[in-house]
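**Discrete fold encoding**
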Amino acid sequence: MPSDESMRADASAAIMRILAGGWVAHIVHTAAEIGLADHFDQNAKDVASLASATATHPPSLARLLRALAAIGFVNETAERRYTLTPLGATLRTAQPGSMRAWARIILREETERPWQALTHAIRTGDNAFQHVFATDPWTYRSTHPDFSTLFNDSQQSVTMGVNAAISTHYPFGNFGWIVDVGGGNGALLVSILQKHPQMRGTVFELPHVAGQAREHIAAAGFADRCDVVEGDAFGGIRAGADAYVMKSVLHGKTDEQAVAILRNCRAALVSPAKLLIIERLLPERVNPNDVVARENFLMDVSMMLMTGGRERTEAEYRHVLAEAGLRLICVAPTPGTSAIIEAERA
């Protein structure tokens, strides 16, 4: 049996590894910021050529590359030349499923400073983003187009694989017309329309996002089957669709805000239309060995800091739905972190 001293040493080493995760995040973020992965091909690259391509300081880049090799983003040869690993390739800009935008935004000022105010938020209950920037994230993005574009790109990064899973793990073919409330650039709706040629769709989004949605939908070739309507989920939502989808909308809202949006959705629902809420679900009990739940609990803290919202349990979704006059029908799990919550008018 290990001694108490040995167990304390193991615990100390474990906490060091956990805390060093912040350093790892900064290393990956910097690689994404300088576009490092975009300058690799089939041949091993030396530091000088990579530094020239990225306009960086060669000795400093050399040390970054060795750290990236240590965490598995590049391979290092005996001659100190480098090739990109599959993990590192996720930072390529144009690669399907690219995570570069997410890696860039995760430590950007707008995301990092609220996390630095976590202690303040826990002590006071204040919303950290509001405390730091004196406004809410939606207003901030509407007046900072560069951040808004990066935010939307980052959301597409983390949801591309999720969208494919969602579109194949629910019978969307039962619907002729779907409205995606808060649908971002339309990526989810496009993935559904691709599988159902007879379906039409509508993205309902804030004005500063609607233009990006039109561009994305047109580029995907669905402008004839999918329109974009500008509006606010706290206002009126177009009625008469067969289904209304909300993905990653309610987790950014307080319970009171969520109920207000859900009541607007209820007003738009004409029976037998369905409301499909796509969100992370928290378990009732914490299991530290559940990797998906761990990610969802971390996202819950992020929502507390960034928007004042929260991730919820199934029971908590039942409650806000009931408050809005809706009834939860079923919960359909999908591969990954999200679930599809199907609801209708009570």
